[in-house]
Amino acid sequence: MTKEQEFTHKSLPCQQCPLRKREVFRDFEGDELEFVGRFKKGDLAVKKGATVLVEGAHNPHLYTVLSGWGFRYKLLEDGRRQIVNYVMPGDLVGLQGSLMGEMKHSVEALSQMSLCVFEKAELFSLYKKFPELAYDITWIASREECMLDDHLLTVGRRTALEKVAYLLVFILDRARQSGLSRNGTLALTQQHVADTLGISLVHTNKTIARLASRNHLKWEDGGCKILNQEALAELAGWTPGSGVKRPFL
Amino acid sequence: MTKEQEFTHKSLPCQQCPLRKREVFRDFEGDELEFVGRFKKGDLAVKKGATVLVEGAHNPHLYTVLSGWGFRYKLLEDGRRQIVNYVMPGDLVGLQGSLMGEMKHSVEALSQMSLCVFEKAELFSLYKKFPELAYDITWIASREECMLDDHLLTVGRRTALEKVAYLLVFILDRARQSGLSRNGTLALTQQHVADTLGISLVHTNKTIARLASRNHLKWEDGGCKILNQEALAELAGWTPGSGVKRPFL
DNA sequence: CGGGGCTTTGATGTTCATCAATGTCTGTGG
DNA sequence: CCACAGACATTGATGAACATCAAAGCCCCG
């Protein structure tokens, strides 16, 4: 069996971080950059399908996604799974566990991923020395809250057709922003869609088929190709975000 | 028509804040207390049923609930409503709007409420001067995220019976912690329950009737009386929180 | 006494879950 | 090269869960 996670001692310095070049992200000041550089302890490479973090664990680390993507989820005792959100480049992973001690959800990789590793014990010194960064972290937590509010609205009150449309547009938009998908293709299974939206796999499949018959999308070899994003957005009542640059660590 | 909101210039100084006495909350240090006292600009009294904050607004304030309770919700264009969480004494309200500019949800009072009013323009100076308090705010945001993750699991993957059981135990536990309900009674309508759980009012009613027939609860004059919290918790797969003291502002 | 908010109930139909089977593709070992 | 298993997608049949519609009851308040 091959290793599913591999830690390396800071192979990529923050000065060369590819995220800093991306339009959506707020770039760093000199001394902030230098501090984050020291705050970062290394890189973690994770294989597709591997578990990054597990519910109930007391992990001494905190991460920023550098490349690839995954999802956060929770389980009921009998195995029912709810995907709670997706994590993409620039997203902070494990903050909740850092603050509250124990992870309340798990994270699994949907593709090969790499993550920056931070020491959660040093988080408070960041708060003391760089209030701007502390503010950024709260901003990031707040953005997560917004997304969760939206998901609740979707899962609770939208129809299956609206749900699928919403989810795919939501993911595609985020993926584009963080530089993941440039051809409108998303590599996830219908089971992931079902577990995000709170509907069964079979019903998900039939709902996707309805959207495909309208030529809004096409499902092909383990992924989804969005053909008409506007139509899906219209169906879902989805509106694009503000376009303001956002912080990251 | 009577006024639904009334602002008074700091009628209650933080030194006498009733929340500081409660077991669940972490108490303040001297200079922190003094700073928060200056950060607080006044008190807001809100009538039952009134809107505290409205989606889309740019509110210059940030609040902490002092007494009473309410709920956060979002609407779809056609009027479908999703209640996203409840707010109770000690909870921070409006943080998301403070950080991201525009409120992404509304808040309505379920009872007479009073709130501490803070100036969001001064939030960053709090981050600069009191990193401990900044850390606390992030902690609070993170706790909200946890609750939302749980709600998603409930709305997405639990059955109607489990949903109702979960919600009522969840609310009762929080209410007890923040000193709202001491006799196991919750003053909310079945419409609120329905809009929280993503099910219809009629089905909610019939599900509540099932729980009532098992003597787990009783619905009486516009409220719910929980008779057997353990049975509901068991049904819902609910487990009590850690019991660690939590911060507030 | 009438009206409005909330709850309750029954009837009916749709959405969705569940079950079961089949198809396709991919990788693996003989 | 073929046989095989495993992951994922697809399809049809059936029933349960849930939504919707409609009406009636209760209670408080003006």
Automatic annotation (TrEMBL), chains A, B:
Keyword Plastid: no
Transit peptide listed as a keyword: no
Source organism, top-level taxon: Bacteria
Record SUPFAM superfamilies: cAMP-binding domain-like, Winged helix' DNA-binding domain
Keywords (A to Z) from UniProt: DNA-binding, Transcription, Transcription regulation
Domain HTH crp-type: 158-230
PANTHER family linked: CRP FAMILY TRANSCRIPTIONAL REGULATORY PROTEIN, LISTERIOLYSIN REGULATORY PROTEIN
Name of the protein described by the UniProt record: Crp/Fnr family transcriptional regulator
Organism: Nitratireductor aquimarinus
Taxonomic placement: Bacteria, Pseudomonadati, Pseudomonadota, Alphaproteobacteria, Hyphomicrobiales
